[in-house]
Write a structure and sequence with these properties.
about 375 residues, seven-stranded parallel β-sheet, globular, 13 strands, alpha/beta, binds uridine-diphosphate-N-acetylglucosamine, Rossmann fold, six-stranded parallel β-sheet, 16 helices, 2 domains
Length: about 375
């Protein structure tokens, strides 16, 4: 039976690509079955990234699409269970904290299939965040908890999880980053292609991504953030890769035209190699994403996180990340600090070395062998 590897949404793909490769390269190879839940389905959010990352075409697509959290999670569960019946499963491997992660872990554990969770133990301690619920629950029911930073072990221990289940392996997202950086798309070519004169960015630029529901789902929060960005854009051009959730909301709130200011370069969601190129060349990155906090730390580019908390504290303690919160004045001041040369340089955290997926493959193979031997009468 295969190790079933699950992806559902954009931030899963860069984590899974190196894992699939490492499982295949292991001797003897671990057979995998790649399942896409279809949580993300737009080609910009989806196919482009598969191609960029050399991720094989998923053997199974559950095509759940967008819905409320309850319906989306339930649909993934309903459609994933027969996949286990049909193909069998040596283990189910899930990554990150999206709805698909929890849904598939829950189906597997009830089928007595071992569950491995990659990127385990991260906690924002903010239970209003849907991802926090997915993280807490997935970790409780997983057999193997692969972690990216040591703080995760303290979080897990506090929730009563036995240390034997935790394995510090490092960060698979950084495996992808290091493997693909030489192929990163130069920003000038990207801007040229959408009709922006690339000279506009010659004096430096910022990259912005925003999609957290807490920031973009209400005009009272989104409005002031956009105003702060507009003001910043008069001093530093800002390239914004607009997430579909944010674009839909800006339209709904009648705010889309505010992005017409001359300091803004508005792009659709970008491919992985384009995003890497944009971030690597940036003066500063402003974001509410989780993964980008890590990628900027690996790139040594200052990151200003537009959130009150982070589940990735190592990016603040050792990396280039600063938690700015959602106060527009604080955001403007933080950008000023960077422009005055005070941006964080940071250092690379332990095991963010491009070999996390190899560590996972070696550990998982040995664990499954031992586990299966024990299960035999
Ligand atoms: C999901 C993840 C989040 C991750 C983000 C990355 C959960 C709880 N959230 O949030 O952790 O950081 O993905 O993008 O799993 N939409 C499209 N096309 C798509 C996908 C979505 O247009 O391919 C639009 C739909 O209007 C949808 C909205 O975006 O309602 C939100 O999509 P959804 O998958 O529910 O959550 P994200 O906000 O993307």
């Amino acid at each position: 039976a295969p190790v079933i590897c699950v992806v559902g949404a954009r931030p899963n793909y860069m984590k899974m690509a190196p894992i699939i490769r490492a499982l295949a390269a292991h001797r003897p190879p671990l057979r995998t079955l790649l399942v896409h839940t279809g949580q993300h389905y737009d080609s910009a959010m989806n196919e482009r990234l598969f191609a960029d990352l050399d991720l094989p075409h998923p053997e199974v697509n559950l095509e759940v699409g967008s819905a409320s959290h309850a319906v989306q999670t339930a649909e993934v569960m309903r459609r994933f269970e027969p996949v286990i019946d049909e193909h069998g499963a040596r283990a189910v491997l899930v990554v990150g904290d999206v709805n698909s992660t929890l849904a598939c872990a829950l189906v597997a554990v009830k089928r007595h299939v071992p569950v491995a969770h990659v990127e385990s133990g991260l906690r924002s301690h903010d239970r209003r965040m849907p991802e926090e619920i997915n993280r807490v629950l997935t970790d409780q029911i997983s057999d193997l908890l692969y972690t990216t930073e040591r703080s995760a072990h303290d979080n897990l221990a506090r929730e009563g999880i036995a240390p034997e289940r935790m394995v510090f392996v490092g960060n698979v997202m950084i495996d992808s980053l290091l493997a693909n950086l030489p192929k990163a798309a130069p920003p000038a070519a990207l801007l040229g292609a959408v009709g922006y004169p690339s000279e506009r960015l010659a004096g430096g630029y910022g990259v912005v991504t925003l999609h957290r529901p807490s920031n973009v789902d209400h005009p009272q929060t989104l409005g002031p953030i956009i105003e702060a960005l507009r003001e910043i854009s008069t001093r530093l051009p800002l390239v914004i890769a607009l997430h579909p959730r944010t674009r839909n909301n800006l339209e709904r709130f009648g705010m889309l035209d505010r992005l017409g200011a001359p300091g803004f370069v508005i792009l659709p969601p970008q491919g992985y190699l384009e995003m890497l190129g944009l971030m690597a060349g940036a003066t500063v990155v402003l974001t509410d994403s989780g993964g980008i906090q890590e990628e900027t730390t690996a790139l040594g580019v200052p990151c200003l996180t537009i959130r009150e908390n982070t589940e990735r504290p190592i990016t603040v303690e050792q990396g280039t990340n600063t938690l700015v919160g959602v106060d527009p004045a604080a955001l403007r001041a933080a950008v000023d600090t960077v422009l005055e040369g005070g941006g964080k340089r940071g250092r690379i955290p332990e095991y963010w070395d491009g070999r996390a997926a190899q560590r996972i493959a070696a550990h998982l193979a040995a664990w499954l062998d031992a586990h299966e031997k024990q299960a035999q009468p």
